[in-house]
Amino acid sequence: MNYIVFDLEWNQSPYGQSGEHPRMPFEIIEIGAVKLNDQFEIIDEYTSLIKPKLYKKLHRSIRAMLNYSEEELKTGKSFKDACSEFLKWCGDDYSFCTWGASDLYYLQSNMDFYYMEKLAFPLKFYNIQQIYADMYDDEGKISKLEKACSELKIPEDEPFHAAINDAKYTARVLAKIKPDNLEERYTFDIYRHPKKKEDEIIARHAGVLERISREYSSKQEAMSDKDLLIIRCAKCGRKCFRKVKWFQNGSSTSMAIGRCVYHGYMSSRIKFKSAGSTEDGVFIVKKTERTNRKGYEEVKARQIELREKRKMKRHKEKE
Ligand SMILES: [Zn+2]
Question: Residue 239 Cα, ligand 1 centroid: separation in angstroms?
Fold first, then answer.
């Protein structure tokens, strides 16, 4: 199996939201990729400039970042041609690797805009930015590609923000950190999500029990689904005792703590993602993993802190 490390550059409406096409707010203008063997050695590369169809003028923040002009883009291929060529170049047996999750998201949104055949579902890929964060940052915080390269002392001989260069840098990061359990560290792409219960994705990998749910009409509907709220042990799958009830932490996350009789504390997190089909429609990415007594106490403290804040607020409103 080969790894396809790819990176995209995209443009957006230079006139802000008013000039934006709702089906393609971000238009891809460059695809750069390298193909790696299972030793993470570069065996081939691919690069294409794409002639924009919607936004022919570069947005100023994008112009400031890129190393080429509108004139050069005019010589590019159509997205459809470039994308088909790229996918053919990928071959039959490969996994995508990217720095962050947005490249794969925008690739598919642009493919949809041109009604191209969809990529496989569910789609696993390796988010090198997240893997780097999990391995090198105590809190798992993600960082920019430039920062990771400098931390890993990867020579910066080419400018960043050209798709092919960023793909090469990402490949070098991967070769340098060589995660031994890479096959466990995949991410599910969520450009598309399960619509019905029977399509839900449930997987246990890299110590995390993950579930990507069906669509719900609202957050409230999701949070009243008893089955969704059960915390299962990330190790053995048994139902846990609930130690901290589900509580909302920020607008898009809920948290809870459970305890498996055999494997101890489990921290569970629900992230609400907009389903896009209706205004309030959501689907859920739920992740459960092992934690310790300290982790349990921190979540408990957070729950109490938020509860107190709410009380204070209500008190103030009454005054
Ligand atoms: Zn267990």
Answer: 8
2-184 topology per CATH: Nucleotidyltransferase; domain 5 (3.30.420)
Under a CB-based contact definition with an 8 Å cutoff, are residues 99 and 129 in contact?
Answer: yes
Residue 239 near residue 292, CB atoms below 8 Å: no
* Distance between Cα 265 and ligand 1 center (Å): 9
Looking at CATH, the fold of the domain delimited by 193-315 is given as: Alpha-D-Glucose-1,6-Bisphosphate; Chain A, domain 4 (3.30.530)
At 61, is the pLDDT very low, low, confident or very high (cuts 50, 70, 90)? Answer: confident
Give the Cα separation of 151 and 29 in Å (integer).
29
CA angle 34, 40, 42 (to 5 degrees): 35
Give per-residue pLDDT as tens, 120-155. Answer: 999 999 999 999 999 999 888 999 999 999 999 999
Q: How far is the CA of 287 from the centre of ligand 1 (A)?
A: 15
CA of 142 to the centre of ligand 1 (A): 29
Q: Taking the domains of the chain in order of start, what are their residue ranges?
A: 2-184, 193-315
Q: pLDDT tens across 205-222, in order?
A: 999 999 999 999 999 999
Q: How many CB atoms lie within 10 A of CB 255?
A: 19
Beta bridge partners of residue 260, listed in sequence order? 264
CA of 259 from ligand 1 middle (Å) equals 8
Q: Which helix (H) or strand (E) holds 306?
A: helix 293-318
Backbone phi, then psi, for 241, in 5-degree steps? Answer: -75, 140
DSSP string computed for 223-258: HT-HHHH--B-TTT-PBPEEEEEEEE-SSSEEEEEE
